[in-house]
Amino acid sequence: xxxxxxxxxxxxxxxxxxxxxxxxxxxxxxxxxxxxxxxxxxxxxxxxxxxxxxxxxxxxxxxxxxxxxxxxxxxxxxxxxxxxxxxxxxxxxxxxxxxxxxxxxxxxxxxxxxxxxxxxxxxxxxxxxxxxxxxxxxxxxxxxxxxxxxxxxxxxxxxxxxxxxxxxxxxxxxxxxxxxxxxxxxxxxxxxxxxxxxxxxxxxxxxxxxxxxxxxxxxxxxxxxxxxxxxxxxxxxxxxxxxxxxxxxxxxxxxxxxxxxxxxxxxxxxxx
Length: 272
Hints:
Elements: H1 2-8, E1 17-19, H2 42-66, H3 79-105, H4 109-133, H5 140-177, E2 179-185, E3 197-205, E4 212-220, E5 232-237, E6 243-247, H6 260-263
Helix pairs in contact: 2-3, 2-4, 3-4, 4-5
């Protein structure tokens, strides 16, 4: 079942990913084999608009329940909750759309998650604007605060999306037109500097000149899935010196057995 899900949505598969710019965590670009970069079409932004609107409706519905009349007629206010529940279901639908489709168009977790957070904050601000307009003075400050946080988060999300898509384009270009070399991981990362990954030397033979070269890249992986030395990799390079390192899919990966050396270090690291 898991293997089938990995094939249908390959971002579920946990495999070590190499980065050349020190990226780690949610800033690691994950481009599965055969993936293409989908455009940011109006259909995708419809998910975002729908998510914001749904969150706003949930907030308004909850406010109407809380601010409903007290006493014998208070039961009428609960009808607003019945209206808010479909909005909550719609929120989950749009959230899932952004979560899944976002990886096809961004291929980085952090900017995608920032986009979700911006939508949540924007919807909350929009929902709180209703009581603020209707005279709820106490809603003004939260509305302004959420709006400000939404603007800052949206800016960071937009910048992250642009950088992620640029990196995806670079990786796909090197895969398609770069010079291919075969290589191996030459050593394990240093446990003392482990932080959800670490630097490893990659040794490869230049397919054009036959010369042996070594580059240092960061391997981003779980502590129990660290490739052992001599693990086969493929190195893609171009004439400008840019490169991409990936595991060789034609060879099975063997992982280092003593993961405790990396899980128990005191340098702020641990499992990914």
